[in-house]
Amino acid sequence: MQPWCVHVVAGEAKEKLSRAILDAFEAGGEGHKRTWKYYPDELFEPYLSRSVRSAGGSTAARIGKGDHAQMKAQRAQNYLFFGAPVGMIFTIDDRLEIGSWLDYGMFIQNIMTSARGHGLHTCPQAAFADYHRIIRGHLGHPGGSHRDLRPVDRI
User: Fold this and answer.
1) What is the DSSP string of 135-150?
2) Which CATH number fits domain 4-37+67-154: 3.30.930.10, 3.40.109.10, 3.40.1440.10, 3.40.50.1240?
3) What is the pTM of this model?
4) What single DSSP character describes residue 153?
5) Which pLDDT tens digit goes with each residue over 75-97?
6) Which DSSP state fits 45?
């Protein structure tokens, strides 16, 4: 079925998309929430401990615990595609079931593996999912199939 759609952004289109998302992010992002949950409401072991240890990546970015300004600045880098010249927005119709979502995940993983084989690095991001309305508008996403941009990942 190939239940995915890939939108590639670069140059001015990528810059405009980044600016629109950053404006919403800097304004507090009110009204911008993902339509799906990344984690269950109550995380349980061993995942709770792993989540605490990872600290959302702040350790790798050398951000001190509780430094909310630096954490926000680091998160903003997601919306700048971490300086990559090209971004890819992957979408799937949210009415599909787990088999399609598995196919979708394998497709994304294969693109990442192939890119690495060509000497390119990738960085999948679910952070864009909070701004699906903005993304839909910038991509000219009409609705219907792939009407809900979830999850929105970026390479």
Assistant:
1) HHHHHT--SSTT-SB-
2) 3.40.109.10
3) 0.80
4) E
5) 899 999 999 999 999 988 888 99
6) T
